């Protein structure tokens, strides 16, 4: 299969479903409200719109690339299948005991997150592998036969199997699946396939999460394919996974936990493509949709990646307070701050926003769909940032009176503020929350946030980006074309890719080149087999070893050359490790043993580089006449603000703030300290005002 002429990206979010159609370089896009009862229907509705705009039928589409938050939402809202965990005797409570770290050290009332699978649904059987993968106790097959009858009788919808040290030797897990599968007609996930990495808590939790959402996701993906075929779209469907690559629908249905961050991953790819186009080697992407906001650091045109991330943190920004998922993922920080996030006043009289969201059903008060609680969108509307008659391309008429009433009742009256002042308080709180999240994410990665250029996208991000830049000390921000559906566009730019991992502790002093080559060859074969399901093109590989000094609790990534290793290569690997260690911690340590812990092979097809564009920070002043009143944070009062249609602006045009640049899927608010300069490719550059403002 080769890259196709007509490609469609579909991103199901918590509030909107975004569709982007690339027809031989021409982009068509739309946003429709997410249908929670039948998510695939929103995709079909959006496809009808963009196909009509492009003058094509469903049958003309060559490939559909899809990402969704359905798996994430199922985990957060605990709406998955009733799942049984089968584990090694003595390890029944691993997912509840966690690592025993206190993520909030001085909180005497600290509450740990509730485990995904309750204790009564966790079953232990005898059988044991040691730390080298050798069997020291045989698997109790009779107990598994009896357990299968229990699981069947109690009506479980899925089974997760996680045994001690199975990442080294999966024989017991595979045999347990065989025994249970002979009596059960439910999906069975084993940790050695879902996450073959050391650390039992993370691995067990990941296989539990995979099993928990697997029936729901398999059912959904099956319905989607059937409905597409009914509508005449016989093209293949691929899914974007959390690491930013494309995999087949069949793989996604078997390993749905890989989809947990698929939508945000598309946004990071979109931002990385924009960064490469403008030659920006240090950017921060800011993706704000209807339900959440995501911040991601991108260096040298690549988003930062990790092997573990957390879903549903119970303490804001606190690592360790969420549900760990041990899979390759684009690293970002995500908070409940979207256009649909509910605003409220806490017991101390402080305005709070989120994490609860009005989503698409019933939606913010201004949607007129039954929602009566104030959301961020309501506050933006009251402040004049949004045109009530031109929201979502005019498909949704907003009710300003409903927004005012909701804000006054739930926020204004409690704080003795009028609707406008309360609305300003709401957006200031959400902007400050996002700024804090960005600062925390940068500090955790040893970076200074103000040194980056921001790339903002998502339906709500351009409304808040300039104010966020003010708070963070960021001087420039790019709003690309199609920003309102940025993640869906990112899907179209994603490579076919997969990352295979395996844990095996190997001391560098006893470097065994033959064993290392055999392990890496197996990982290369695994990764490439997934990639070949989607492309016959040239594949590139990235080899990473996660290494540490013996006795340390965590590892650092060290890039290895993609070739067969010889016995004498241990010196070069040691040098590479010490250089990376010095980058992380200031200096290397002499003396302690160095060891390998986990190995990663990332394979992906080679994408064509985008055409480069020179960044224009000056521009020529463009006269814009239409105006309306928009609240100005600098003066604390409404003021006459320039309103410009994005499609009417030409490359080189410069508009000084305050201004609002409107388009079909979003609006860009240019605050007083900034000016907007239109780039040669139509991207909006927000630049802090200088002498030419």
From TrEMBL:
- InterPro entries assigned to the protein according to its UniProt record, in alphabetical order: ACX-like_C, Hydant_A_N, Hydantoinase_A, Munc13_dom-2, Oxoprolinase-like
Organism, as annotated: Salipiger mangrovisoli
Q: Which domain of life is it from?
A: Bacteria
Which residues are in the MHD2 domain?
Answer: 513-624
Q: What is this protein called?
A: Hydantoinase/oxoprolinase family protein
One Pfam match: Hydantoinase_A
